[in-house]
Amino acid sequence: MRKRHFHLPRIAAMFLLALSVVLHPDAGMGSTERQPKTHTTLSDETVIKPAEKPAEAQTAADKIRSEILRIAQDNAAVQAKAEKRREEAKAARYDQSIYGALKHQGLTEEHIAKWRHKHPLSTLNRLDKLPPAKQRSVADTATFIRKVNPNIPHETAWREACALVFYSVKYGVPANLAVGIAKAESHFNPNAKSSAGALGVMQVMWKVHNGMLRAKGIAPTRDHMFDPERGVEAGVLILSRYISAYGTVQKALNRYYGGISNSYLKKVNKNMAQLKSHSEAMGY
Fold this sequence. Notes:
Mean pLDDT: 85
Radius of gyration: 38 Å
Number of helices: 11
Order of helices and strands: HEEHHHHHHEEHHHH
Low-confidence stretches: 27-32
Structural class: mainly alpha
Strand content: under 5%
Oligomer: single chain
């Protein structure tokens, strides 16, 4: 038996011809037009009329093509939006939580740029190097500080927030614990001082710790304790040493406070819970 060879153009032509017959069964195969048959007469002279075809704006093939085109356009739009978001993420210096917190406070990225320039040694100059989760912690803390104490300037709040997160990472202390202590000790006031000699955001006893703080370069003088970021670093460093020395956070807090005080522990825990609620409400 001799093999028959089929070529794609011929197959395509046959397919189109068959499709045209299916879609337009009334069309003739030749060039002579045939009048459409309007009825059929049986042998008993019963007349059967075919059901009239409803008028349609589009053929089935047109509808399929339109649907395919619509799906393709929708997919293209989704891909374009995703690509735009990727490009925006690449162009952004900080995590979106930072921009959200700034917008919430009526600020912009330019404010952080100005503060970075004003304080070259500030932890704000390392904000963009922090992982996204830590940047979200900074955003939550900065807005929390202003909520707790509206008298704290935006600049100070952001410097304190970034320092609390940065030095918590550096010294291995939970950031929310450091924030809870700062609120309990000074309400985030960097200029706070007690009659006992405790100074700054974390109310560090300068007369007790000045040797270590000088050696570390954190606070060469007493006045350095009133710098919002130096004061934070001093407190977080001391807290980390107490945790290492006493083994538990509770014992470390007692040592930080200077004695056993259940009310102080409850206050710090309450502050940590408030920070958590605030963070959840902000949605960063």
